[in-house]
Amino acid sequence: MVIKVFTASIVGSSQIKKKQQDVLGFLEANSIAFEQLDVAMNDGNRQWMRSNVPGECCPKSGIPLPPQIFNEDQYCGDYDGFFDAKENEAVPYFLCLAAAEKAEEEVVQNGKVTAETSEILQKNEEEEAEDVTAEEEAEDATTAEEDKADGKEEEEEQE
Question: Where is the composition biased (Acidic residues) (predicted)?
Fold first, then answer.
């Protein structure tokens, strides 16, 4: 799961800039993987952010301002929600990171898998499998290159 933080590289408000820096700094300091997406320089990012912030979470102006935070496609919230979660030491829940951990704990404690925990665990397994597959492909490519290099060295030695 990757946290997506929609920010604006060009802002007229120092307050928005400080909020963006607070979110990004916290994620970096806590080694939480994230992707920063600029809405000022990329119209696709701006459109995606605006269309995926739930209507009830938009300000009165109707246009959500950065930073806006998502876990993949799931909306987490804006800076105010992030700040409240940080103050209450509930950032993993705010970022929807705690759901996977909680599901695994429930299985261990209860010895049974509910439909909800099963879905969460399956999603985690798929993401881990994708990561392993990517790593294996990278290792295979490296091994193939090394084999080619070894083959050339053997040919040169035989000559």
Answer: 125-144
**What fold, for 3-96?**
Glutaredoxin (3.40.30)
Residue for token pair 């009165």: 60
Domain locations in the chain as residue ranges: 3-96, 103-158
151 vs 159: CA distance, rounded Å: 13
> Percentage of the chain with pLDDT > 70?
62
Average pLDDT, the chain: 81
SS3 7: strand
Q: Which amino acid is at 29?
A: A
pLDDT digits (tens, 9 = 90+) for 73-129: 999 999 999 999 999 999 999 999 976 566 556 555 666 555 554 555 566 556 555
What is the DSSP secondary-structure string of 63-90?
-PPSPEEEETTEEEEEHHHHHHHHHTT-
Tell me the one-letter amino acid at 115: A
